[in-house]
Amino acid sequence: MQIDMPFKPEPDGPTPDSGESTPAPAADVEPPAAPAPCPDDGPLGVLTGRPWQARPQVAPEIIDVMRRELPLDFSVSDRLLTILAIRGLTDGRALDGFFYPTVEQIPDPFLLKEMDTATERTFTAVRAGETVAVHGDFDVDGITGCAVLTELLRALRLDENQVRLLPAFIPERAADGYGIAGRMIDQWARAGVTLLVTVD
User: Fold this and answer.
1) Alpha-carbon gap, residue 53 to 55, rounded angstroms
2) Closest Cα to residue 126, out of 151, 163, 92?
């Protein structure tokens, strides 16, 4: 996700002369009732209210064949092989592709909506030497993606130009919650950031 800046820094909370008032708390609203389960359904999920689905069964013979086909020098558990079998990865070629993926297996990133627009906006920032910030996330893919994109932007040069890249930002879950950290928007605006890239 890309956000063009600058944004005007806003003061924290309402100002004394703003005339703003604290909104009234929302009235209690009863959540919709979960659909009644069918007599043959299993136990219901606590959060979804939907019945659990039984795990597909995998024949022991399939697990034995998979173990012989494994392209590994070490043993793995039957549980892992069962999960792979449920996903349809049972023959040697499929298992090899799972344990040793190649670049050719990566889907075309331009199948994502507006990837061409995001790419061109990034190239424009590089050519103009814009100030860029990268906002990651505190989970595994958010941290990894933030690191990869930061390294890319640091190395990317077009027409001998490159962006002015600020230090990557990983939010603190307890302090920043979920989504974009509002405190950083103001800070980046003051630092002259004109392109914000979020990663997760």
Assistant:
1) 6
2) 163
Q: What is the amino acid identity at position 8?
A: K
Structure-token match 């939907």, residue found: 50
The answer to whether 4 and 193 have CB atoms below 8 angstroms apart is no
CA distance 180 to 110: 25
Measured CA to CA in angstroms, residue 144 lies from 147, 168, 181 at distances of 5, 12, 18
Q: pTM here? A: 0.58
The one-letter amino acid at 143: I
Tracing tokens 């049972």 back to the chain, one arrives at: 90
168 and 146 Cβ atoms separated by less than 8 Å = yes
Parallel, antiparallel or unpaired: strands 2-4 and 131-135: unpaired
Tell me the two tokens of residue 29.
């609203």
- Cα–Cα distances (Å) from 54 to 43, 149, 163, 172, 195, in that order, read 10, 40, 52, 37, 47
Helix (H) or strand (E) holding 197: strand 195-198
Distance of alpha carbon 58 from alpha carbon 192, whole angstroms:
57
pLDDT by 10s per residue, the chain, length 200: 555 655 444 555 544 454 555 555 555 555 545 455 454 556 788 888 888 877 788 999 999 999 888 888 888 899 999 999 999 999 888 999 999 999 888 889 999 999 999 999 999 999 999 999 999 999 999 999 999 999 999 999 998 899 999 999 999 888 878 888 888 999 999 999 999 999 98
